[in-house]
Design goal:
mainly alpha, 5 helices
Length: 130
């Protein structure tokens, strides 16, 4: 939590004012990274109420590679409803790109299966990325 609060202070005190789609403006900094030891716990923001059940269902939905909101709706998660069409379709959102990335030559790459296989083969590699 300390890393997150420190970042908020850094943005507040030294961030650059930028335009945004709403016209209200936003402060930002470029390229900040935070790192967390997941063996020590899950880095969930504790300064506001979080819909953890919804977060968990959304992640499972991403991992399935789904593009339709039916699973989310069945689990009372509505964060994507605004962007879906009348049939619940969203197009190639995150999960679809994770599980079915199209290469320039038209091949399909399952990035999640690939990174799992790579972790099993070489757990100490620094090249595991989705």
């Amino acid at each position: 939590m300390k890393q997150y609060l420190d970042l908020l202070r850094q943005v507040r005190d030294g961030g650059s004012l930028r335009e945004d789609r709403t016209g209200t403006g936003t402060y930002s900094i470029f390229g900040h990274q935070m790192r967390f030891d997941l063996a020590a716990g899950f880095p969930l923001v504790t300064t506001k109420k979080m819909f953890f059940r919804g977060i968990a269902h959304e992640l499972l939905w991403f991992l399935k590679g789904a593009t339709n909101t039916a699973y989310l709706t069945a689990n009372d998660v509505h964060i994507w409803d605004e962007w879906s069409d009348e049939n619940g379709e969203l197009g190639p959102v995150y999960g679809a790109q994770w599980r079915n990335w199209r290469t320039a030559d038209g091949r399909s790459v399952d990035q999640i299966a690939g990174v799992i296989e790579a972790i099993r083969a070489n757990p100490s590699s620094r090249r595991h990325i989705v």
